[in-house]
Amino acid sequence: MAAAASAKIEVEGDKTSLGYSSVPSLCLAATLKYGKPDALNHKIGGEWINFSGKTFVERVRHVALGLAALGIKRGDRVALLSENRPEWSITDLAILSLGAINVPIYTTQAIDQIRYILTDSGTRAIFISNLRLYQHARQALERLGFLENLIFFDAHGSEVVERAMSLDALEEEGREQARHTPAAFAEYLNAVQPQDLATIIYTSGTTGEPKGVMLTHDNFISNVLAVTDGLPISSTDVALSVLPLSHIFERTGFYVFCYNGMSVYYTASFDQVGENLREVRPTVMTAVPRLFEKVYHRIVKKGMSEKGWKRKVFLRALAVGQRYAELKDKHQRVPPTLALQQRIASRLVFSKWREGVGGRLRYFVSGGAPLSPALSYSFLAAGIPVLQGYGATETCIVSANRPDSNHVGSVGLPFAGIDLAIAEDGEIMVRGPNVMRGYYGQPEATAAVLKDGWFATGDVGHLDEVGRLYITDRKKDLFKLSNGKYIAPQLIESLLKQSEFVAQVVVVGSGRKQPAALIVPEWEAVKQELSAQREDFPQGRAELSQFPAAIKMVQRDVAALTRELADYERIRRIALLPDEFTIDNGELTPTLKVKRRIIDEKFGELIEALYS
Fold it and tell me: What does the H/E/C string look like for 473-506?
């Protein structure tokens, strides 16, 4: 690590000396080293546009120098509000090249939280993707005297909004600065030190105001090198960037991709993931369980819609594949007959799954929430390994399964240099160079979670005999039943999400005899199944959520999926909700975590009725 941090290389032609003491120096040096013609890629008007490695580095330099011309200097905070696109990464590295601090904001962040983040961080400038996002954030941006510059990625926004400028204009200013002072960029870059603050990422805030997590360049550099050492990654790999880059998981992943010379393709929206997978044909990809749940339900829905022998073949392949994968995962003997059936299932059914994700995917890395064993086994059987990993905003990426050691239910071994421990109450503790400096402007909150170099994650889990980590739940999400037994809602919820009828679910029941579930159904799947059983049923969601036949149908699935749980954990009461939980309604965080306190308050009467 120390050797990498002090290494220097000369870049031919531009006389720029790039060091490895900062995130941009690490990424830009690697980008120039590999010289990929398609380093960054995005889709415009139905066509993929490629940025070469050289263009990528030049644009970072010009944006950085343009910011310097605006007066942005070392230690200044600069916000970034945009969906995934090459400009996000270009701007991010430009900000960091000056020793300034990137403050990313989710595009789905509520207005009051945007205002809080900008005010709390004292942001001097903000990059905004387009006019639509500006209109969303406008109320938060008004009357903030300390916010001096507004820069649009799309030129149209700067033409409409007073005192705004375009990224093109900023880069042109940077080009002019580079002509006059060719060595300026190198001077800024080489002044950045590993211990300097790189970013303030505000946590989702499931309770109270969000806290600003301070991460240094060294936090990221150590993590990039550790993940590179732990996972098989090479410059021939192609990545599809789907998750928001404002999230620590995807952002660290991008630095890993960049450092290893991979080609990165950006998905503009979640709705385009399926199409982009088939076009880009990635070999490596980071994702969250919700993506796999949606893909799985879509596959099951299509398979179940088949008639006659085709439906039987699909169901048989699913059962065979899950059993085969489970035996392989647990290192148990696979009977020859089952192995033969798996080969047939792979050729007839699972080959189509592999084609659906591009046909050359080596592995997914999944993080953010538990993935149910059944879904994991299904993808493993299809030859699509899902490596579950673990991390937090405060710790970057802590652990992950490896392709040659993938254990379903676990989030794998920690990466090099990272220590794990389990406290007496089961809380997971993390120590290493990846752990944050603290919470911005909140010394008391920092002291509450950082003790002797150990970070208290708030998650509960255990380690097996070889040090693999298993997550049980969030410490604050565990609740006690009236019989004194504790319930881990996330584990039960991950089981229920296997149902084709379940889109979202929250397990409730603190202080009650038994847990219950509030379920937002996959309404199309519910209607399709009802239409196969009867001719008359309500079409509106509000009426359908109260329809006894619909409730009974979903209840049967829930009972089947929880039958292996302990008696006190089984779900015997459910309520169907007509509308999805959303960020706008305050029920979800920007990272799609459920705000359980809000759910309990909002649906208090309904929960009470379930137990009446």
Answer: EECCCCEECCCCCEECHHHHHHHHCCCCCEEEEE
CA separation for the pair 554, 525 (Å, rounded): 10
Say which amino acid occupies 311.
R
Q: Is 457 exposed, middle or buried (0-12, 13-18, 19+ CB in 10 A)?
A: buried
Residue 342 Ramachandran class (φ > 0 left, ψ -120 to 50 alpha, else beta): alpha
pLDDT for 300: 83
pLDDT tens per residue, range 5-52: 322 333 333 333 344 789 999 999 999 999 999 999 999 989 999 999
Rounded Cα distance between 587 and 602, Å, is 9
Rounded distance between C-alpha atoms, residue 96 and residue 469, angstroms: 33
Give the DSSP H or E segment for 396. Answer: strand 396-400
CB burial of 283-313 (b: ≥16 within 10 Å; e: otherwise) equals bbbbbbbbbbbebbbebbeebbeeeeeeeeb
90 and 112 Cβ atoms separated by less than 8 Å: no
d(CA 225, CA 256): 8
User: Is residue 568 within 8 Å of 481, Cβ to Cβ?
Assistant: yes
Closest among 92, 100, 104, 103 to 72, alpha carbons compared: 100
pLDDT of res. 5: 30
Contact 469, 426 (CB under 8 A): no
Which residues have CB under 8 Å from 506's CB, separation 6+? 489, 493, 517, 518, 581, 594, 596, 599
As a whole number of angstroms, the distance between CA 367 and CA 296 comes to: 17
Catalogue the E-assigned strands of 191-289.
197-202, 212-216, 238-241, 263-266, 284-287
User: Average pLDDT, whole number, for the chain?
Assistant: 91
User: Which pLDDT score, from 0 to 100, does residue 208 have?
Assistant: 62
Closest residue by Cα to residue 201 from 107, 101, 100: 101
Half-sphere exposure (Cβ direction) of 3: Cα atoms closer than 13 Å: 0
Q: Which two tokens stand for residue 403?
A: 């392709």
| Residue 497 tokens, joined | 């999400």
| pTM, full prediction | 0.88
Decide: 366 and 387 in contact? Cβ < 8 Å.
yes
Please report the sign of the dihedral spanned by the C-alpha atoms of residue 111, residue 591, residue 449, residue 451.
Answer: negative
CA distances from 380 to 133, 332, 337, 361, 364 (A): 39, 15, 19, 12, 11
Q: Of 109, 167, 169, 119, whose CA–CA distance to 142 is shortest?
A: 119
- Arithmetic mean of pLDDT, 80-97: 97
Residue pair 22/192 in contact (Cβ under 8 Å)? The answer is yes
Q: Which pLDDT score, from 0 to 100, does residue 612 have?
A: 81
Q: For residue 339, which of 351, 321, 359 has the smallest C-alpha distance?
A: 321
Closest CA to 219 of 204, 191, 199: 199
**179 neighbors 83 (Cβ within 8 angstroms):** no
Report the 10 Å Cβ neighbour count for 447. 11
Domains, the chain, ranges and CATH?
2-192 (3.40.50.980), 479-610 (3.30.300.30)
